[in-house]
Write the structure tokens for this entry.
Amino acid sequence: MTDCRQYSEACARNRGPILEVLRNAFSATTTVLEVGAGTGEHAVFFAGVLPHLLWQPTDVAAHLPGIAAWRDAVALPNLRAPLALDVDAGDWPVAEVDGLFTANTLHIMSWRSVRHFFGGVGRVLAPGGVLAVYGPFSDDGRHAAASNAHFDAFLRARDPSSGVRDWQAVDQLAAAQGLSLTGDHAMPANNRMLIWRHNL
Ligand SMILES: C[S@@+](CC[C@H](N)C(=O)[O-])C[C@H]1O[C@@H](n2cnc3c(N)ncnc32)[C@H](O)[C@@H]1O
């Protein structure tokens, strides 16, 4: 059988620093929905080192075989089979979770999709639940580094609807869904990890 696992060097580099934030952010969490799981390497790693979590990876359909191949290779009891989830679809394939994680997605999606993402978060994240978002963010239009500005220009040239997001604009969408920003962690390579809690 062909091995359709995909590998991401960025995942291998950032998973350790992300883990240090997730350990605390998801310490009281039971079920995590991951949106835009990509290769599935984050899902395999975090499910392995955080066994108290039931980890549900999702992505658009094209990514599911690769994620499933990683899952088959590790056979972890707390890692669920990947599900198709396009943030633009009205129906998400989970009813309620108390944790939600996404990495390197909000700058890839259109702003319309980012709005849909937060609409979905508002629907499925339980009261008291935690949202953790990793990626590059700008601050009121100012980039954290020249490399982020170049990356933003590259993204927008490729797809004008994508681009590095201002954390303030993203936080406004979160607040409209009843989420409060509780953490903002500087991460390697000029990325950030933003943590919100769904208000009771
Ligand atoms: C740069 S990759 C990041 C993958 C992985 N999270 C990581 O950090 O390596 C962006 C991911 O966002 C996903 N994505 C883009 N648009 C999406 C949408 N409308 N709904 C769900 N996922 C989407 C892509 O399929 C892709 O897996």
